[in-house]
Design brief:
Number of strands: 6
Order of helices and strands: EHEEEEHE
Protein name: P-II family nitrogen regulator
Oligomer: single chain
Radius of gyration: 17 Å
InterPro entries: N-reg_PII, N-reg_PII-like_a/b, N-reg_PII/ATP_PRibTrfase_C, N-reg_PII_CS
Pfam families: P-II (PF00543)
Helix content: 10-25%
Family: Belongs to the P(II) protein family.
Distance between the termini: 9 Å
Structural class: alpha+beta
Length: 112
């Protein structure tokens, strides 16, 4: 099993959720995040005054998946979240040693 973590632009969340639902992924955890990558923020103008915004709002979500679905999930996320501009986000994968469903104490792939 793997833990897939993605950081994307907030305006692309609905597109990603729809795409993941389309491939049968219904369980994930979503949280708000703030940060920056290569783009290092941007400059905004408010009432004639320029402001540098270094920390940008992002959305972070996590999915636990069986190994065989990882590439499909990553491709789906990238296709739905991509705008071909800097700041689209990142996806990374780490191994999951075990998982247990609290309610039933079921473990392994059945607990996903």
């Amino acid at each position: 099993m793997k833990l897939i973590t993605a950081i994307i632009q907030p305006q692309k969340l609905d597109d990603v959720l729809d795409a993941l639902s389309g491939i049968g992924i219904h369980g994930l955890t979503i949280s708000e995040a703030n940060g920056y990558g290569h783009q290092r923020g941007h400059t905004e103008v408010f009432r004639g005054t320029k402001y540098d915004v270094d920390i940008l709002p992002k959305v972070r979500f996590e999915i636990v998946s069986e190994d065989v679905r990882v590439d499909e999930i990553i491709t789906t996320i990238c296709d739905a979240a991509g705008t071909d501009t800097i700041g689209d986000g990142k996806v990374w994968v780490i191994p999951v040693e075990s998982i247990t469903r609290v309610r039933t104490r079921e473990t392994g792939a059945g607990a996903i």
